[in-house]
Amino acid sequence: MSSTALSQISMPFLMGNSLNAWSEALVGFNILGLPLGLVILAAIPLVFIALYSLTYGVYGERKISAFMQDRLGPMEVGKWGILQTIADILKLLQKEDIVPSSADKFLFVIGPGILFVGSFLAYAVLPFSSAFIGASLNVGLFYAIGIVALEVVGILAAGWGSNNKWSLYGAVRSVAQIVSYEIPAAIALLCGAMMAGTLDMQQISVLQSGSWGFAHFFLFKTPIAWLPFLIYFIASLAEVNRAPFDIPEAESELVAGYFTEYTGMKFAVIFLAEYGSMFMVSAIISVVFLGGWNSPLPNLGAIALNDWTNGPVWGAFWIISKGFFFIFVQMWLRWTLPRLRVDQLMYLCWKVLTPFAFVSFVLTAIWEVYVP
Amino acid sequence: MSNPTYTVIFYLFAAITVCSAAFVVFTRNVIYSAFSLLFTFFGVAALYVFLSADFIAVTQVVVYVGGILVLLLFGVMFTNSIMQTGQKSEVTHVVPGTLLLAGIIGALLYTFYTTHGWMPSETTMQGSIVERIGFETMSRYVLPFEMVSILLLAALIGAAFLARFDKPGK
Question: For chain A, what is the domain count?
Answer without folding.
Answer: 1
